[in-house]
Every structure is written in C-alpha cells, then in structure tokens.
Design brief:
The structure is a homodimer of 142-residue chains. Chain A is built from three helices and five strands; from the N terminus they run αβββαββα. With 142 residues, chain A is an alpha+beta fold. In chain A, a hairpin with an 8-residue loop joins β4 (78-83) and β5 (92-98).
C-alpha cells in the first residue's frame, strides 16, 4: 500500500513491550506520563470499523489487558483510553494511567498543562510484559 | 450506591438518540462539534475492565455502531474515540467525527483551538437512530 510506505506506525517500534501477529504494545515515550502505553494494530487501517468483528475483539482484548495490567501494577486514579489518529491515520490506542496530582488532571492529557504535576514512574518492562501475558492467558481461558 | 446519587451520568439524559437496557446514546451538546455523540453505560462503573467480557462487547458494539453511523451519514475525515472519565468516573465513550477544517484538527478536541473552524452540522436525530438500528441489526445477524 503506497500510503503505508510513509506511515511511521507501519515501521516496527524500537522497543516493544509485547507483541503478537496482529499488534504491538509500546511505551509511548511521553515524559510527563512514563506509564502511557500505545497499542498499535500492525496492518495499516484507519478506523475500528475497518476491522472485522474478530479483529476488533482481538485488538480490544489487548487494549483492556494493558488497562488491567496498569491498574494492577500502578493503581492509578483513572485509566484514559483513546483512539484518535488525526495526525497518523493508522489504527492505534492510547492507554494512559492518570492520577489526581498529574500535570493535567482532571483534564485530558491533550489539554493545556494545569500544574507542575507528579510524574509517576512507569512499571518495569518485564513486570508489564508478565502482567499482559498473565491477563491474556486468563482471558483466553475464560 | 451512594456514589451514584451525586453522579450526573446516572440521571436519564434529557434527549436520547438511542437506548437499550444497558446504555444511552446522546448528542454531547458540544457547539463546535454538533455530531459529537456520547455512549453512556447505564450502571455506575468507572472502567472498561470493571465490566464483564459480554458487557464490554455490548458497549463496544454500540460505540462502533455509532462510529459506523456517523461515517455513513457524515463522511468525516476521521473518527475519534475516547473513554476518559476523569471528571465524571462513570463509564462513557466519546465518538467524535472530525474534519481537516474543524477547530482543532489534527489535534484532539481537548487541545487549544487552532482556528475558527467549520462547524459541521449534526445528522438528524431520526437519521442517526435509523442508522444505529440498521447497523446493530446487521451486527446481530453477523
């Protein structure tokens, strides 16, 4: 696909937290939110409704598994989920652990900064990977 | 639940686009984005991972049905999906049709306004309702 050639999300990420044949999980590299994860669908499509039902379910199983892993490892005040893709129309999800004392709370992280907020450290790569494997195994067994 | 008593999303919305036993669909009433819809889970829970698998699937079927309906009726440049809930931790989804000439594109709608953008009219209540019914019926038959 010619559109995919120039797409930064079509390239394999430098550091991968977790992957299977269909998606990558990475740390987003947002310095105010070190635990901010991104789940990237490997195929170059734009919208959730461009996927089949089974593909939608698989991607969301991974998204919610990352949510569950972050809740277990970090006990954030709230999880924020978003699939925007205005800048890069290649399907991906933001999974963002939020705390009342972070830089933007209760606003979304895309709003202007509200305060010099606490930067909550990310979980370790290995802990997050283990939690995702564990939660996905539970899901598959359910 | 005592926490639900003070929750604005526990009250029945004034104007309902579509509903079933589990969720409401409404227009969000955002003046720059008249087609911006909100899908509200009726029960007072905070996170997607507080739902059962079947509940997650049902809610997302409705969210993606609204996405599909807006794509069909309005041909936006992109759909934005988000479940944030920092201000009101009662599970709800934003389904936002976006255009390159809207007030914030390509930023999220929560970022500072970029321009005096085009305000794309909402679909009619009846058209949206019909599209949701149609798309959900297709989904159930799939």
């Amino acid at each position: 696909m010619s559109q995919a050639v120039a797409c930064p999300l079509c390239a394999a990420p430098a550091e991968i937290v977790w992957q299977d044949d269909f998606c990558h999980v990475i740390f987003a590299g947002e310095h105010l939110y070190p635990g901010f994860c991104r789940v990237i669908w490997k195929q170059h499509v734009a919208e959730m409704t461009d996927l089949t039902l089974n593909e939608q379910r698989h991607l969301l199983n991974v998204v919610f598994t990352v949510e569950r892993a972050l809740r277990t490892l970090q006990q954030p005040t709230k999880i924020n989920l978003a699939s925007l893709g205005n800048m890069v129309p290649h399907l991906h999800w933001h999974v963002i652990p939020r705390w009342t004392d972070d830089s933007h709370f209760p606003d979304p992280v895309w709003a202007p900064v509200r305060r010099n907020g606490t930067i909550h450290p990310a979980p370790s790569l290995q802990d997050l990977r283990d939690q995702i494997d564990h939660a996905l195994a539970e899901l598959t067994a359910a």
